[in-house]
Amino acid sequence: MAFAAECEDITGDNRVDIFDLVNIVKHWGGQDPKSDVDNSGTVGIEDLILISTFFGDCPEIIIPQCTIDAAITETCICNGGEETFGYCCDFGHSSGVCIASGEPPNPDIYYPDVLMVAPLTLLFSGIESSAAGGAEVVEYAWDFGDSGSADSQTDEGMLVAHRFDNDGTYTVTLTVTDSIGLSASTSTQITVDAFSGPVYYVANSGNDSNPGTEAEPFQTLSGARSQIIAAGPSLQKLLLKRGDSWSIADSDKFNLPHGTFMGAYGTGAKPIIEIGLNAIVRSQNPSDKTDTIRIEDIHFRHAVQHGTKAYINAYVPGAVIRRVTIENGGIAGTLQDYGLLLLLFL
Q: Cα–Cα distances in Å, from 218 out to 223, 238, 300?
């Protein structure tokens, strides 16, 4: 238990008596901070009158003991000393948190440099967040500032992903809490652009000499790819008609050019792409983020079981494969709305 005096004690003996009066007389007319009780700037009769009202022992105020192994939230006594912040540890405590400084943690948000076009699935990391003085970051709480998407606006964890369904500017906030209960937040703004570019359609009933519109679609994947390349670099969507199917020959490489978003249109079952032995579906230029590919609502089928090599190679940072069915020798699996987010930290 510890005590603090609260009175006009000039001499520091925890009581007001004749010695305090003598001290005022000694500095009469002068400027002594201790004797100038009324803070007028000059020691005089007002100070003498004021201090006489406090004659006697000073009242005692009890300062409580700190809670052991807990953060200090108010002035208290820890291990015999008066503390106002930090963490109070028992004597001999060996836990790392007991050398914590009481400083709040330092949150840090990282996300990769990818093509920011909606719908965008983006990976966020708080791995570079840190805590002071030997404490550890133990909680990561995210708010993506996005109430208009199917994904939850909030999440928890060191590494999280969020899908922004719509274009706009979003404030992403990370709040971290350390092992002594201290928290801190940081925010960053990200801008997601709307898709802007041509849309090409492909259907079994089409013709590669067509302009690739929904009314006059292309017929083959290779024909559509040639037309896209001829049109020049840009973002574009390549939509395959539901219920139709195409094939990629053995050892062929179907390079999706210029940042293609591949998906489906119409009604019915997902369009099917039969992938031959050692065939590859991939981005044309994996070193350029503008060539990021996104594949949605396609059924990739390889008739022979595992071991014969058929690839969907989307190794560009930010590439997303979503609601895609992958079938290998009759064994099929479907990636749901979140999908597969690939190699975002390259």
A: 7, 10, 20
Question: What one-character DSSP code corresponds to residue 152?
Answer: -
Give all domains of the chain, ordered by start, each with its CATH number. Answer: 2-60 (1.10.1330.10), 64-94 (no CATH), 120-192 (2.60.40.10), 199-342 (no CATH)
Tell me the longest C-alpha to C-alpha distance in the chain. Answer: 111
10 Å CB burial of residue 163 (0-12, 13-18, 19+) is buried
- For residue range 241-298, what is the model confidence (pLDDT) as tens digits? 999 999 888 767 777 765 788 999 999 999 999 887 766 666 666 556 555 678 889 9
The answer to whether 117 touches 157, Cβ cutoff 8 Å, is no
Report the C-alpha gap between 194 and 252 in whole angstroms. Answer: 33
In 3D space, the residue among 105, 156, 91, 107 whose CA is nearest the CA of residue 133 turns out to be 105
Tokens of 119: 């719908």
Tell me the residue type at 52. S
